[in-house]
Amino acid sequence: MRFGEDISLPLRASGSSEKLIIALDFGTTYSGISYCFANHAEAKPLPIMKWPGLEGLSVPKIPTVLSYNSGSTEKFTRGASVDTNAKDAIVGIKLLLDPEQTRPMYLPTSNIKKDLKALPKPAVEIAADFIGAVYNHALQEIAKTVPRAYMKLCNKEFVLSVPAVWSDAAKIATLKAAQTAGIHPVTLIKEPEAAALHIVKELGFSMRENDAYIICDAGGGTVDLISYQVEQVLPRLELKELVPGSGELHYFPEYLDKAALIKSTKGGMAGSLGLNKRFASAVQALVGDEQWLTLKRGKGWALAEKQFDQEIKRAFKGDVGEEYFVNFPLADLWDDPEGDLVSNTWRMTGGDLKQIFEPLVKDILNLIELQVKEVEIKRPNSGISGIMLVGGFGSNIYLRERIKAHFNGIEVLQPEDAWAAIVKGAALSKLPQQAAVTSISSTKHYGTAAWSIYDPHRDAGQATQIWRDGSERVEKMSWFIHIGDDIRRDQKVKYTFNYMLEEDDFGKEMVFSDELWECQDRTPPVYPSKSRNLKTNCIVKWDATGIPISKCVQRTGPNGKVFYDLFFDLIVTLESALMTFSVEFEGRTMGSVEADLVPGRDTVTKLLSQ
């Protein structure tokens, strides 16, 4: 049953000021939920600790895995209740919402479009099924903690965490999944931002104004980094984003098995899909392709993978001389004394483990290095107070030691509840009286294309058009947000443009489409180009029908004709993880759209810049 179907727990309670905040860390490998009653005098996010399939255990997260019943795309089991050997177990749902992300060179290539078609239903719908189910379970657990009458009084506010490196299209897909599950309205928050709010809030007693921390969220499939500066500790915690988010998303379609993505190992509490993938490759190289095909379908491999996930990779501290014995029960593998494989047991050394860890660790070190350099540029005389590790892989001992050794002189912190930091911080973000990120640093350039008066010196060689007023114009980019710009959460970025109209245009239907462009090049182009890093982000449509001619500015063009300039403002606002693009006329919003990815460029703008 989806959450939206539970009529006894309405989304909004009419006339009530009571508020229940519910936050979901929708992770690649594990997901968790936290909640808090905002009107409580000492409101503090609490994680859901009881889950189906984990009876008798208290854990803040469950595997992000779902399995549909045979012959059905509606009935399913999820989380720890999923059979670990089920061929139709689906994991990696979250990563499929952003298939455009670049994959690391050390992982094999794959046809992602083909992989998506192998799913029993669209990825957004699968994500909706999982999200709806865990939210519904969470509400049932929350309802056990307070009187039902009070629960009915509470208005529900929802927060979903997303990777900082995700595209706007993937963020929109996440919102669509939540809406399909009957959960709305939803606020998105970047995962490192959520982690920063929780950790810095918990360590507030030891924080000082102007401290700067790099948050490294190393999870199952993503590695996100953002740097923050402490602006204020009391009376409420305020953070400022110093450096735009950076990172990588690791997608593993090689685990596809017919209609399934990544068979899950139940109960593992930490780790990275990359480590598990490289462990599988190491075992395949050890036993050979012929034995591997048989091994990976049996119980012996499921138990060995579980042993690696739960015990071996968490115990590794970097000692290459350490020995680990990986067992493949009932696998009937051929003995290979030279490869240390005897009686279905592989004597794995610390050296073997280091080879598995190395590419991922190097990637993370490089990403942190980039953040360190960017912070030092912004704060040349203040330095970096520390590096905070969160997420499943962020809890790894070996990763922490490698980072400490590489960044000698910078303190490396690994909070005890690093694994649950994101979900707690996501809920905390809805308690602005306690903690808030007041400004963010843009990860892209944003702007529009408009037709400007042609300048033969500056615009030589560019294609021009003779406009209806007789002027010669060239299409140029107007960038109003640049990479690294500090944008306050309550700030409106406003630029004025105009449409050139004739008297005959009035009285007719006037519907305009304006595009928001994005670019990730260090220096954005002056003119629209076919650069792969320049593309349409979204299109806002607005209706100017009925605006009287008296609201326009009359002028005479170079050709002697009379024209009417309709001036309006394009507005960009940044709220947490999503951007809103809107059009205002005389202070009134005429059209609004959340940033989305629009394939190609299918319109020709008629915007004019002065």
TrEMBL record:
Q: Can you say what this protein is called?
A: Heat shock protein Hsp70
Gene Ontology MF terms in the entry: ATP binding; ATP-dependent protein folding chaperone
Q: Which Gene3D superfamilies match?
A: 3.30.420.40, Actin, Chain A, domain 4
Give the top-rank taxon of the lineage listed in the UniProt record for this protein. Answer: Eukaryota
User: Which InterPro entries does this UniProt record tie to the protein?
Assistant: ATPase_NBD, Hsp_70_fam
**Native species:** Metarhizium rileyi (strain RCEF 4871)
Keyword set, alphabetical order: ATP-binding, Nucleotide-binding, Stress response
